[in-house]
Amino acid sequence: MENIPFTIRKVPERTVVGLSRRTCNADGRSVDDIPACWTEFFAQNAAAKIKNRAIPPTMYVVYSDYASDWKGEYSFLLGCGVTRAETVPEGMEVRRIPAQTYAVFNAKGRMPDQLLSVWATVWPSRLPRTYTYDFEVYDKRFTRPLNKEVDVYVAIDPEKLEPKFQT
What angle do CA 86, 46, 35 make, to 5 degrees? Predict the structure, then answer.
């Protein structure tokens, strides 16, 4: 963890609406499921179907419903932040991410390589992960042609955070 800097941040509740898949890293399904979800999201022009999108527009990837840890099954949702989710387009789901404390990482550069590098460091780390809701933020920094950026929020239990990780 020492080679990838991160900050500790308390984040308020947020709501995301989008397309979801149940997948797993350990058996390799995520290598196919995650790109397929991105392809479907753009092919359907899914963002345009989502009502009450937050301003500024932000896309999220939400990891939730963990069966165990990063080696078990989990739900992957690609969608947009919304101000409310009274109606959800057919085939889409809602994720209400509760207010939590996160270790926040910044993936910057060639994507998805840099993003995968962050996750590859987080997975075997000793961060006190809660395996509740983790998410990635794709805002205007991701639309740049060079030096794209994605923030990765990993839910943690701050009371179990080792002193060397506290900043």
Answer: 125
Give residue limits of the domains in the chain.
6-165
- For 133, the token pair is 């809701």
Report in angstroms the alpha-carbon separations of 162 from 50, 69, 83, 128. 40, 19, 35, 8
Those residues whose C-beta lies under 8 Å from the C-beta of residue 34, and which sit 6 or more positions away, are 21, 23, 76
CATH 3.30.470.20 corresponds to the domain 6-165: no
Which residues contact residue 133 at a Cβ distance below 8 angstroms, ignoring those fewer than 6 apart? 62, 63, 64, 95, 97, 98, 100, 155
Residue where the block lists tokens 């896309």: 59
Could you report the per-residue pLDDT of 55-95, keeping only the tens digit for each? 999 999 999 999 999 999 999 999 999 999 999 999 999 99
**What is the pTM (predicted TM-score) of this model?**
0.94
CB 125 within 8 A of CB 70: no
Token duo for residue 52: 């009450």
Q: What order do you get walking across the sheet with 93-97 strand by strand?
A: 6-11, 100-109, 148-155, 133-138, 59-64, 73-82, 14-24, 93-97
